[in-house]
Amino acid sequence: MSNPQHLDDLFTFLRFPSVSTDSRHAGDVVACGAWLVAKLSGMGLAAALHPTARHPVVLAKNKHVEGRPTVLIYGHYDVQPADPLELWDSPPFEPRVEGDRVYARGSTDNKGQILAHILAVGETIDEKGDVPVNLIILVEGEEEIGSPNLEVFLKEHRDALKCDVVAVSDTGMLEKGLGTFTYGLRGIACIEIKVTGPSMDLHSGIFGGTVANPATAVAQIVASLHDADGRVAVPGFYDRVQPLADWEIEGWSKLPLSEEATLKLTGAPSLFGEAGFSDHERRWARPTAEVNGIGGGYQGEGSKTIIPKEAFVKLSFRLVPDQDPGEILGLVQKHIEAHSPPGVRVEVKLGHAGKPYLTNPQDGYGNAAREALLEAFGREPALIREGGSIPIIQTFRDVLGVDTLMLGLALPDCQIHAPNENFSLSVFEGGIRMSRLLLDAIARA
Amino acid sequence: MSNPQHLDDLFTFLRFPSVSTDSRHAGDVVACGAWLVAKLSGMGLAAALHPTARHPVVLAKNKHVEGRPTVLIYGHYDVQPADPLELWDSPPFEPRVEGDRVYARGSTDNKGQILAHILAVGETIDEKGDVPVNLIILVEGEEEIGSPNLEVFLKEHRDALKCDVVAVSDTGMLEKGLGTFTYGLRGIACIEIKVTGPSMDLHSGIFGGTVANPATAVAQIVASLHDADGRVAVPGFYDRVQPLADWEIEGWSKLPLSEEATLKLTGAPSLFGEAGFSDHERRWARPTAEVNGIGGGYQGEGSKTIIPKEAFVKLSFRLVPDQDPGEILGLVQKHIEAHSPPGVRVEVKLGHAGKPYLTNPQDGYGNAAREALLEAFGREPALIREGGSIPIIQTFRDVLGVDTLMLGLALPDCQIHAPNENFSLSVFEGGIRMSRLLLDAIARA
What we know:
The structure is a homodimer. By secondary structure, chain A is an alpha+beta fold. Chain A has 2 domains: 4-185 and 356-444, Aminopeptidase; 187-246 and 283-354, Alpha-Beta Plaits (2-Layer Sandwich), CATH 3.30.70.360. Helices cover 33% and strands 22% of the residues of chain A. The first copy, chain A, has 12 helices and 18 strands. In chain A, α3 (107-128) crosses α12. The first copy, chain A, is globular, with a radius of gyration of 23 Å.
């Protein structure tokens, strides 16, 4: 059974529609950050809301004592947009419990996970007066838009944020109760293409055949991104991609993973991707090019026989070591220029970008993390990479010079970024246990 | 100056949002038809609203007298959707006059043009007690959705609709005051493709690389429709296309047409189309494949890193003699199947279709039409084809066995099917004159 006070805090946290990408929700983002500061202050930490150029950072610390290791726990309180709203079974910002799950936007990504750490700290302080390490809790409000201001914040507060290791729960748990340690992440590079043609929508009978169609042009550009084998066709795209190590290929083949599970989880008619790699190899260790959104012309019921004046596509590229996001965006821009058809104007807008990340899981504080996972969940933890991107992990390495322990609590069917996002309440309680054990193990390390 | 009573009737007609493709406007369509019936009855014609499977047909007749030719005047009272609403300078169903133009959805297509004929008949009856021919006025409510029920209606009322010639104003006037006789039209064939993949939007990091992206698949299908020279790449598409006659190539080259005018009218950065043909040859006498609408995934501000669960494209093909819409739809379906990538489901929904049309403009009632155009506008009329589709013209030939005089009043910048559609009030008055002269000339023929 879940602790009612834990649930009460979780539901309050989930009710803030803290959608960072949508400027209409800027006030909700601030309100959510302010609530966290009040919560952390109430636990006895020195907490404050730090403004940035867009959404504020929540920062809290206990009293640091010389000789103890310093742990920075990172998370984010912003969430993805909730649309399409009509596909939710209940309102996305009104948490609903059904069985072991709570349904709400942000329940897994990342409010439930960061709150598990915060409540673990609160309980430890209640019982023992302090946690056994020097603690820094940093919760940002811009993760879902690529953390544009966090690097500056880290640099400006480099001394205050000096630490030995970072701990983050914003990655996956392979199955309920299988503690999962993620030692690699893909990077990301986003780009939006807008194609414009005529100055207004044209009658496709009167003008069809004599002007280029922007929607056709967008489709041609998108189609140029892949070859028939599912490989990205941008010249130079794979030049810096490192092959998988033998121990990874072997280790992953023993994990409770199956193509059938992926098929069931996604509901796709079949799996498809770059030829020559397994499902999980493609997701965790190979780069991709995906359309996140495409649009242009008539969107309503029935037909409207026009040549649309414009069309767009939003693309994101997932990157693996040693691809560099800036270099990839340059290659993609060059490719788009080379594949822009005549008769239209093509505008490219670069979006957020983050480097891929890779570290050694059987080294240093990694042992403490594996110990905490084992004790909290009672099973030998899985060592994996992940397909998602947490650009800030690379930034911690670059700015603070430390590695990150990624100890994820996101179940495969938690539907993050999608309608009916949910979080397991038993994993929530397990996460609270794990966080307490982790600080103990790091203190002993 | 416009006759105030003419304007009053026009504005009343334009205020009905008779959007036939959108089921939410079904009541407005009926109300518009009922207003027309009242108008025609008030002029002394026997008029009635005839139900069909969807939107009703307005039918009116004078008392037929043996020995006079019978003329069927055809038009439509339904209109295209008005969206995107934000691009209109004034509400689309609240007519606004500026200079010589009235701005409203349907002002040119087709309410202003059919009303010119109706008012001409009304004035003639007021002055002379009757028009000099046996008259049938037929105004349908389904032209913008491909007239799905009119063919059945014509067949069921074949005897009552027996006539010698049809007159229609639903085509273009090359420039203000240049009477224009259209002797050819392109046909049309519409198709909608829906591509589905995963059962929900997926996180593009977690799943990117292992399932096919429906938006990418739609783009690949669209890109397969053309070659680099702007030709349609569907096998067999051009097999039945007839070349232009020499007199057409020569006659058209002398008309007041220019690529510069098309560029200015469309606002496109440059003209583009099938290699080897002029602007107007491509628009009037060559077939096309156009995207009317494409969509899938995130449409909002900023980025949302998903693999969308589905995507769609709405396509229309403009056809020329002797292409057959049914045969073309079959070829296109086969092509789509051949170009559907793995990992997605592709559903094809056939839309409306209409045959291309071609007749001889210097023959039979054509001479009466050219005489009326010359006298009404004071210049030798232009003989042209048009790129648009009026499938019903072919149906008149098939069912009633008669040709159609297409005497259009749509100026090049009237923006039909687009925001800020407008109609010239001086052309409106010229159209009323022309319609009176036409009935006189046909009576003498």
